[in-house]
Design brief:
The structure holds 2 protein chains of 2 kinds. In chain A, strands 1-2 form a two-stranded antiparallel sheet. Chain A contains 14 helices and 2 strands, in the order ααααααβαααααβααα. Chain A has one domain: ABC transporter involved in vitamin B12 uptake, BtuC (Orthogonal Bundle), CATH 1.10.3470. In chain A, helix 3 packs parallel to helix 8, helix 3 crosses helix 13 and helix 5 runs antiparallel to helix 11. The N terminus of chain A is likely disordered. By secondary structure, chain A is mainly alpha-helical. Chain B is an alpha/beta fold. In chain B, about 35% of the residues lie in helices and about 25% in strands. In chain B, strands 15, 18, 19, 20, 21, 22 and 23 form a 7-stranded mixed beta sheet that branches. In chain B, strands 6-9-10-3-11-12 form a 6-stranded mixed beta sheet, with helices on both faces. Chain B has a 4-stranded antiparallel beta sheet with strand order 2-1-4-5, with helices on one face. The longest helix of chain B is centred in the last third of the chain and has 16 residues. Chain B starts with a helix and ends with a helix. The relative contact order of chain B is 0.10. The N terminus of chain B is likely disordered. Classes of the chains: A mainly alpha, B alpha/beta. The interface between A and B is large, with 29 and 42 residues.
Chain lengths: ~325, ~525
């Protein structure tokens, strides 16, 4: 107890500690540091990593889908609920896109219809969660199964394809020189979600609801509808991802979106949006997405056994989440 | 009160039991304690008072090893110590009885007593041994408890006794334990209070007590000596037998109070009030409340009092639109509403300030700005559904200025503000959109004297501008001082006509209590 801070460094450290908690540093700097370390590692160990071809065509293009799904998941998590049905919405809208183009010959019109179906799925999630007061993880776990069932019925469990090459350009083309369309769509939608989060009432209420619903209600907000909107938005973004995914490969199957859920939640939390809601936001989710995309890409370049990759990814995800949780704000985890 | 002081005050000029020398502690930019020294001697009961934010909690936390001082030294029984955890402090005999009861209700008494220090025999809980020892331990303290009962079957008071027994139990390694009591009476009824004081008096030859409380009369009654903290400094040390509550108050606040406390001279007289703004006509929730009718005029403060469970809190909620009305209407400025929602009431111009700001009033981990603008963001600038960031900034700056909110800035998290400043942010939310009718439930609950005065000043200014206030409160002097009229509630209804509480014609506490019971 007698003042031990005799040397200056200790005093400086103590002061830093007081001003910002270690957790603040980890959440703020962590994703950047991780991205930098991984990139440096792969740049040093492989010759291909730091090439335009790899960074744009592999890392950026492949991560566009993860980005959309992670942005979709960010808003429900911000308001302290969760959407576990993202994969199934991507799958179903993808399947619908193929059917609408191939069987109904709807052409471009297939896109808004498929996306609207995604929004409808999200709306149902939101309404059941809000009005029937079923916990969101349970509702969306249920719709995960239901929508997957629909996708299986429509496809008969196999891959279905379409032949309209012109329409594929939306996903496969390069309208802006040097920027593949997939990357362009990803960035545009990223910008739109950041804008939604910070400049609209919807975004503000997402943060506020994530912290304390009662306070928002007593401040006069129509709480129920603002609890539904994030799910509708999630449906919209997942629908968009499903459409783009399908257009890119001109086919859809029940497992096109398999394995997106865990990395998307990992990306959200790593980026800095806490599972306890109220903090973070979509602007940070992209960092988590890039970390995961770079990790996956690097492991591929290093020819690491895909089964081992699964293990590494899982370990990284849980450790990253463990580091980014603010334990000071959580009493008991059950 | 003075009789009991003389009967209890038998100061033993014992050895120093717990001594604090030059302790300082700061958090970020705030100096919570600076150079505090005190000396607590064996067998004493020492009071510790101060406004919220004066540093009482920080001091208690340092004494029990929850926090470590930046500077300064602690001595227990003359020996220098440096606690790094509460259990280390307990090993030296220093333990704390928490403000909120810290017992597990679905455990038995003895299980709570041995919580986290269970006795085992070959890896199996030694229930029999623990039970017997626990029973003889509490018997020995003179506490009447059956430790084999589940705590949920204990009365509130018995739980408190159990907590005190626990404090003795964890510090039994020491011959001379120091028991810190943090607001122990806050939740007790009068009878419980007496029991607690008797117990403390009975045990004073076996332990040293530090008694922290906002209730100055109680501190005077039970303590031998009283330390006064203000803004992190020790500003006064008083002999309890010679001091009065006013003396303590003055030391705590650092200026004169009482007389103009409620600014009664600024209360608008009945003939100066404006037209009727809020009219409640025969409302009932079909259960607890009503039927109830009353009206409030522009510039009026309408007080509502009643015992716990009288329905006054529920009535406040109904006025806020929080809860269904089965019959009756609420009219706001002539617009009649049937079972309105919160959103409708807010749109009509009624703002609600709930009793518990932490669970219902504030987004603690959001900024002052987000909290201040939370109601005004309902309305959009023009038809574009975007936030009007400039308007939010302006409103927040204005609120900080007008309400004198002490915050590092509009972007600081509300969590870090003191209770009084937090409450000002809740109020600021309604000022930001010029809400004409405010329903306040215990608006000064848990805030310090200085902040209370500012809230009273603000209420007067608001009524001057024509705001109507429904002022629900548990502290009778406050409701009496602030209100133009006062309704007494009992079993969901008003008892008779509201009291007139015009200047010079205020009812007494006794008048109200008679109707309340």
């Amino acid at each position: 107890m007698s003042a031990p801070n005799t040397n200056a460094i200790q005093q400086w450290l103590a002061k830093q500690r007081d001003q910002r908690t270690l957790h603040d540093w980890i959440t703020d700097v962590g994703p950047f540091a991780m991205l930098f370390i991984l990139s440096a590692l792969f740049a040093a160990t492989t010759t291909q990593f730091l090439t335009y071809q790899n960074l744009i065509n592999n890392v950026a293009k492949n991560s566009a889908f993860l980005l959309l799904v992670a942005l979709a998941g960010t808003f429900p998590i911000l308001q302290q609920s969760i959407d576990l049905s993202v994969e199934s919405i991507v799958t179903l809208t993808g399947v619908l896109t193929v059917v609408l183009i191939a069987e109904y010959q709807l052409g471009l019109l297939a896109i808004p219809i498929a996306i609207a179906a995604g929004m409808l799925a999200g709306f149902v999630n939101g309404v059941v969660f809000t009005k029937l007061k079923v916990p969101s993880f349970l509702v969306t776990l249920g719709t995960l199964s239901i929508l997957m069932g629909f996708a299986l019925i429509i496809t008969g469990g196999s891959t279905i394809t379409f032949r309209n090459q012109a329409i594929r350009g939306i996903a496969t083309g390069t309208w802006i020189p040097g920027v593949p369309n997939l990357v362009m769509w990803g960035l545009l939608i990223y910008g739109a979600t950041v804008f939604l989060a910070w400049r609209t009432k919807f975004g503000r209420y997402c943060f506020a609801l994530g912290e304390n619903e009662r306070v928002v209600e007593l401040a006069g907000a129509k709480v129920d509808r603002y609890k539904i909107y994030p799910f509708v938005l999630s449906g919209l973004l997942c629908g968009t991802a499903g459409v783009l995914l399908t257009l890119r490969i001109s086919s859809a199957s029940p497992n096109i979106a398999g394995g997106l859920l865990l990395p998307s939640i990992a990306a959200i939390v790593m980026g800095g949006t806490a599972l306890t809601g109220g903090v973070g936001g979509p602007h940070r989710t992209i960092l988590g997405v890039l970390v995961i995309a770079v990790l996956q890409n690097g492991m591929n370049l290093l020819s690491i056994n895909p089964f081992v990759q699964e293990i590494i990814l899982g370990v990284v995800v849980v450790s990253a989440v463990a580091m980014s949780i603010d334990r000071a704000k959580i009493d008991v985890v059950k | 009160m003075s009789d009991s002081v003389s009967s209890t005050a038998t100061p033993v000029a014992g050895e120093s039991s717990l001594r604090v020398e030059g302790v300082s502690k700061s958090f970020r930019h705030v100096q919570a304690l600076s150079d505090v020294s005190l000396d607590i001697r064996q067998g004493e009961v020492v009071g510790l008072v101060g406004e919220n934010g004066a540093g009482k909690s920080t001091l208690l936390n340092i004494l029990t090893g929850v926090l470590q001082a930046d500077e300064g030294t602690l001595y227990v029984d003359g020996e220098e110590v440096a606690f790094t955890s509460p259990s280390e402090a307990a090993d030296h005999g220093v333990s704390l009885v928490h403000q909120e009861q810290d017992v597990i209700t679905n455990f038995r008494g003895y299980e709570n007593l041995y919580l986290a220090r269970e006795r085992e025999r070959l890896g199996v809980l030694d229930r029999e041994g623990m039970r017997e020892e626990a029973q003889s331990f509490v018997d020995n303290l003179g506490i009447d408890l059956d430790v084999d009962e589940f705590v949920q079957s204990y009365s509130f008071n018995e739980r408190q006794m159990l907590e005190i027994a626990k404090a003795f139990h964890v510090s039994q390694k020491s011959d001379n334990p120091v028991i810190l009591l943090d607001e122990p009476t806050a939740a007790l009824e009068e009878a419980g209070r007496e029991l607690l004081f008797d117990l403390v008096n009975d045990l004073r030859d076996r332990a040293t007590f530090v008694f922290v409380s906002h209730e100055l009369d109680e501190v005077l009654e039970i303590s031998d000596r009283i330390y006064v903290l203000k803004d992190g400094e020790l500003v006064d040390e008083k002999d309890a037998a010679a001091a009065t509550a006013d003396d303590l108050q003055r030391s705590m606040v650092g200026r004169e109070t009482a007389d103009e406390y409620y600014r009664v001279s600024q209360q608008r007289p009945a003939d100066d009030l404006g037209s009727e703004t809020l009219a409640v006509d025969g409302i009932t929730d079909g259960d607890e409340i009503g039927p109830l009718s009353f009206s409030v005029s522009e510039g009026e403060i309408f007080g509502i009092v009643g015992v716990e469970g009288s329905g006054k809190e529920r009535l406040g909620r109904l006025l806020a639109g929080d809860g269904k009305l089965t019959h009756g209407t609420v009219s706001v400025n002539g617009t009649q509403l049937k079972s309105p929602s919160v959103a409708e009431m807010v749109d009509a111009g009624v703002g609600y300030i709930p009793k518990d700001r932490k669970s219902e009033g504030l987004l603690l981990y959001q900024s002052v700005l987000v909290n201040t603008s939370l109601a005004m963001v309902r309305k959009m600038k023009g038809k574009v559904p975007l936030l009007d960031l400039d308007a939010e900034k302006d409103a927040t700056a204005r609120a900080i200025e007008e309400l004198n909110v002490k915050t590092p800035g509009p972007d600081a998290l509300v969590h870090g503000l003191s209770g009084g400043n937090q409450q000002k942010v809740v109020i600021a939310r309604w000022l930001a959109e010029d809400t004409p009718i405010l329903v306040m439930d215990n608006v000064t609950r848990g805030i310090d004297v200085g902040a209370k005065e500012e809230v009273y000043r603000l209420c007067r200014e608001l009524t001057e501008q024509g705001v109507s206030i429904v002022f629900i409160g548990d502290e009778l002097p406050e409701v009496i001082g602030m209100s133009n009229r006062i309704a007494v509630m009992s079993e969901g209804q008003f008892v008779g006509e509201p009291f007139d509480a015009a200047q010079g014609n205020k009812p007494t506490e006794e008048d109200l209590i008679q109707e309340m019971i």
